[in-house]
Amino acid sequence: WDGVQRRAIAASPGAGLVAVSRGGHGEVHVFDADRAEPVTTLTLPTPLDDGGHLTLVTPGDGAHADPVGR
Asked: Among 4, 12, 21, 70, which lies 20 to 30 A Cα-Cα from 62?
């Protein structure tokens, strides 16, 4: 397992979206969880070492009021 990077996962309580980072590769994959289909892949200017940190907020989902970031 040496050299294997972690992943981070984020989901929105207001939409059926899930984001998964690809640690070490600088990519975040976004999926439509309701349809079990990929939506897009974001390429970032950082490798996201150790998976990075993610949050997924959609308009009106109330996530901004969660100070813990569940």
From this structure: 21
